[in-house]
Amino acid sequence: MQTETIWNDIYSKGPQTSSGKPGLALSQFVGPLRVGTALELGCARGDDAVWLARQGWHVTAVDVSYVALDIAARNALAAGVLDRTTFEAHDLALSFPEGQFDLVAASFLHSPQDWPRGEVLARAAMAVAPRGHLLIVEHASRAPWSWSPENTHFPTVEDTLASLQLASGAWAHRCLCPIARTASGPEGQSATVTDNVLFLQRLT
Ligand SMILES: C[S@@+](CC[C@H](N)C(=O)[O-])C[C@H]1O[C@@H](n2cnc3c(N)ncnc32)[C@H](O)[C@@H]1O
Question: For the residues of 2-17, what is the DSSP string, one character each?
Answer without folding.
Answer: -HHHHHHHHHHHS-SS
